[in-house]
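ok so heres the complex, four chains, lmk if somethin looks off
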Amino acid sequence: MTFGEYIREHREALKSQDRRFSVRQVAQRIGVEPAYLSKIERGDVAPPSEAKIRALAEELDEDPDVLLAMAGKVSSDLQEIIRKRPQLFADLIRQLKSAPDHAILRIARDVRDGDW
Amino acid sequence: MTFGEYIREHREALKSQDRRFSVRQVAQRIGVEPAYLSKIERGDVAPPSEAKIRALAEELDEDPDVLLAMAGKVSSDLQEIIRKRPQLFADLIRQLKSAPDHAILRIARDVRDGDW
DNA sequence: ATAAATGTGTAGTATATAGTACACATGACA
DNA sequence: TGTCATGTGTACTATATACTACACATTTAT
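and the predicted structre for the whole thing:
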């Protein structure tokens, strides 16, 4: 599923419960022209900027990292973390490329709990 | 130190031992115009594309991830790994933001050795 | 029935990205 | 001393990114 299809689907779902989730009203709240949001949802144009994707995530109550990923982007705050210690993070991330989900989850939990 | 300064410094160091490391010759080997490389080194223009930075890293025997970081970029292969499992990686990387180097190094080693 | 709201087609814009092409003054060197 | 290579200034160019503005037909609400 593309970024646009995903947005349309989730916006429509909200719209069926609350008519403030029309293309026009959502567009206005995230600060773009209605025609632009319409084109984004139909895949007529590329996904918008990170800032607009974040606004959309907030509006639709979705995970911004997931939406950014669907848009082919990686959050700029993550990029900055990596850029500060490129060798360490590049090495770690490549190591984790084919690690199972539960392993990554567990490492994150261990780090959070200070178990390392 | 900027990307350009760093490149110039390291290219000049190689040049002092081997005159094939002139702006012109390096430019030709990495596939850009000499004037362009000159401008890059002096910060007259933004750093080049990821592909050219990789060619430069190879040519100067530098770590591509470090050069990319200096250029304000993150390797596209890392971005792809993150985009495939955005929640897991976003969470982990943010957890590791302020972890000490040795902790990150150790996690990478543990993963490599299968100790997890 | 009509006014308001809706979704979308067409056309255009500003800025960034990623360079090329050529000329020219300077310096090395044989 | 001529020529060959070097570094760089100026002027362009092509493509991508990230949108706006307006018109218009359709659908919905009162």
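quick notes: The mean pLDDT of chain B is 97. thats all i got rn
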